[in-house]
Amino acid sequence: MLIVLPLLACAATALRSAPFPQNYGDYTVSRIPRQRQKAQPSELKITENVVELTRARSGRSLSSTIVHSMRQFGRSRVSRVANGTTAIDAVAGGQVFSASVVVGGGQEFSVVIDTGSSDPWLVTTDFICRDVVGHTVQEQSYCGFGEMYDPSRSLTYQPISDLNFNITYADGEYLTGDLAYETFTMAGIEVQNQQFGVVDRAAWFGDHTTAGLVGFAYRSLVSAYAGTDLSTDSPSTRCLYNPLFVNMFENENIAPVFSMAIDRDLDKGGVMALGGIPDIPHSPHWVSVEIEPVGVNQTNGQEVYEFYTIEVGGYAYSNVSGPQFNVYDNANPTKIPVVQNSTRAIVDSGTSLCYVPDAVADALAMAFNPPAWWSSDNDAYMVDCEATAPVFGVVIADKIFYVNALDLIVLVEEGQCAMGVQPAQGGLSILGGTWMKNVIAVFDIGAEEMRFAAREFYSIS
């Protein structure tokens, strides 16, 4: 039987970022051009295609590495922090979520879920582990992978010739290997002939549980390159292919949406639904806002990460009981005005905290009782663990999504707490875990919009 495999488009189809970039030291952030015709918004239906998310006990998320590099470049405050020397680093380092995937009809793996990269990849049982800094060969356990992929155990594994897989992350981690076709099943959805990276060399800070990664970003960030000589890999030799979720909605009759609901309980991760929303309690009121995808490029022009950004209508905060806010741009003496109208923010589950314009964070810190204080040792606002938190919310599409007071005080270590909302310090504003624990976040890739509903009976006005 003749099997027709998906084609990989190389070289001429590589996409360039839009003009007018923003520079953050070693990184440039640019608008990603639209890659397909914009579709009508998908109807949000409860789906059974749901996978449980597990929160890793250790490890820095890929997105937080870039976020903090850009914050350090824009820093306007004095800081004495050295990498990894403070207790808050474990919180500020982000959060890594993983999920289960079945490959080749029988091998089940835990993989990192990453909305900022595109490739699915797995490490093989015979891979060579190297140190990130010195690049010396190490024992496989040094790289910290869990159970690894064995191509010889699969009846559906098909190698792809004359291509190589090559990806380097912002913190120095890197992976190389080959490309192949394989059958992937996630959340009950099977995709045959899925292209993926077969990693045989890795420098990786693993969590001793996951064996790879599945990316949910646009396909412009895939890491397949023409030829087998890694030294010739460049943006001009990149070969585009459909990531796993793109193949799901293009070929498996799945709506082009995925959604996430993050759990506050650290022993749990949350849920991710593919093609719809999970069956969990939430407000009946939804809002929608256009996605503006942006790419993060290194100084050599290589794109290394992508973020989903949205327009934020402002931030609401008050230390009075039952405040009434004015979300509109007009004078209303009976209501408290929101601040920092019409800014852009990244929606990122991999960032634990929220990062907002400095003036917003400063004012919010003063609204705690007792007030939070700036710690140059931690490069963060710290707060009394027993403090009374103010009301805080984020305005999206003229609706305020409030953050539960429990999420505004983050335990760093025994007797030491940080504010769940921190200053961006000239970097990008981030709606991270502090805020995302309070919503269902829907990524409608087809319509290029995000939708949000408040969760667990949290207020939405």
UniProtKB/TrEMBL annotation:
Q: Which InterPro entries match?
A: Aspartic_peptidase_A1, Aspartic_peptidase_AS, Pepsin-like_dom, PEPTIDASE_A1, Peptidase_aspartic_dom_sf
Query: Key word Plastid present in the record?
Result: no
Q: Which Pfam families match?
A: Asp
Cite the CDD domains for this sequence.
pepsin_like (cd05471)
Active site per database record: 114, 348
Domain Peptidase A1: residue ranges:
97-453
Q: Which GO terms describe its molecular function?
A: aspartic-type endopeptidase activity
Q: Name one GO cellular component term.
A: fungal-type vacuole
Alphabetical UniProt keywords: Aspartyl protease, Hydrolase, Protease, Signal
- Single Gene Ontology BP annotation: proteolysis
Which SUPFAM superfamilies is this protein grouped with?
Acid proteases
Q: What does the sequence similarity comment in the record state about its family?
A: Belongs to the peptidase A1 family.
- The protein here is known as Peptidase A1 domain-containing protein
Q: Where does this protein come from, organism-wise?
A: Dothistroma septosporum (strain NZE10 / CBS 128990)
The top of its lineage is: Eukaryota, Fungi, Dikarya, Ascomycota, Pezizomycotina
